[in-house]
Amino acid sequence: MSSPHRPPVTQSASVDAAGNASVSFYTRGSGVWRWQQFGINMPGGGSIVGQMYFNGSPVSPFYNPDTIAGEPPLDAGPGDEVRFVVSGATPGAVLTIAGFYQPLA
Question: Which distant-in-sequence residues (6+ apart) come within 8 Å of 60 by Cβ?
Answer without folding.
Answer: 51, 52, 69, 71, 72
